Amino acid sequence: MTKYTFFIIIFFIIAQNAIAHSDHKKEPTSIVKVEEKSSNDPMYATQEEESDSLENSDLFSPSDLFMEGEIVPAERNMKTDMKMEGSHNEHDDPNTAKVVSAKHKTVETSAKGYGIAAGITFFAGLVFAGLTFIKPGE
Amino acid sequence: MANGLTKILEDRLGIHLLEYDIPEHSNSIKYSLGGMTLSSFGVLVISGILLAQFFIPDPERANRSLHYLVDQVYLGWYLRGIHFWAGEVLTVTMILHAIRVFFTASYKNPREINWLIGIGIMMMMVTLLFTGTVLKWDQEAYEALAHFLWVAEKMGPFGLPLTEAFAEGVPLLNRIYMAHISLLPIIVILMIGLHLFYIKYHKLSQLPDATKPAKNIPFTQHMAYLRRAGSGILLLICLLALTIAPPLGEEPVLGLEVTKPPWQFVWIYALENLWVPSLIVAPPIIIGFLLAIPIVDQNKERYWKKRPLAITVLAGFILIFAALIIWGSVTTMTHSM
Lengths: 138, 337
Hints:
- The structure holds two protein chains of two kinds.
- By secondary structure, chain A is mainly α.
- Chain A has helices spanning 2-22, 48-55, 74-82, 114-134; strands at 30-33, 96-99, 105-106.
- Chain A has a two-stranded antiparallel sheet.
- Residues 22-40 and 46-95 of chain A have low confidence and may be disordered.
- Chain B is an all-alpha fold.
- The chains are: A mainly alpha, B mainly alpha.
């Protein structure tokens, strides 16, 4: 009995914490002036100088790493990436941004592969139940 | 048939060398918390290897690659959930394991070394948790890294290897990713190996109130129990991943402080709110305190009722941390970096 109680308690401790986090309604949605991302920001440091030196070098060729047709000019590649998700283009005004604190969410049953995930979880439950009732080797 | 196979494996692989005397009480939840922590770590390693196939460790793309994984990749949300919840479960079982070891005074002579190794593993796990938080590169990650860099800067030459100045031109996120998937797991695995070696060498501790040595059970019987406990932990992780999606924000807005750290770090957020330099002072004090326990506590008594001071310290430690976590969760930061 205590064995099951232990797992139930851990589940509730963790789940309760998750739910508590999801209730952080006091966290403000902030509209702020934003510093533009700069390559000078240490966290966004880029290898501009390095890439220049590599481009000028005879040691490397872009075709060494990519198939023909896969090579895309860096500038174009960046623009494509920026449009990868609509949500990232919502900050049209570079000086104003909306920051929403990330929260735990309930998984929707429409998530890709939810049925398989439920199956995997069910299988994990079966294994645990089997080991608990049969207790092989114990 | 099964016995024949076992004998072949024993002869060829020397598996029987792993066997040692296990006291009967080891087949209980409180004496299997270390095994449960190891199970979670195994889940973290496997799910981490799979996650690495989809993650782009570049500041411009890291966050987007995770959103892509969660929204577009088949079962990607589940994979990330498993990795996240395994980390959460690991934190809980690891803390409970440390509390159990302290409560039963299993850190005492001759097992001091394993307490020290255990504290080392705990520190590495906390570092893994921190680096994992930064990798998702949303607002919470950015602010966590900003605080970390502030501390590293204050540490002067000792903090230099942890800053961008150490390898200019290389995004810090790349180096954090390397630490998260390579350096730290390698150190943890080596330390776990050492931890297990000393468990075997010193044997599992007897019950604190035992008047005579406990009856021993075969090693395989303990392994069977740990297998069941591990499968329970896996089920718990799967259930959490199936029901609650871990938080993932959008790309960070630089220079802004609006989020709070995960609950494992929120106590230091609360301390920082009281006194900013506690960010630098508190971790070494706590680590020093934990490391000093087996050295300072030379009392041979192991039964908790006969160790009132130690139990008071334990209760105080738990209460202070719980209070700081609760306060950190409800308070609002009064300053910025």
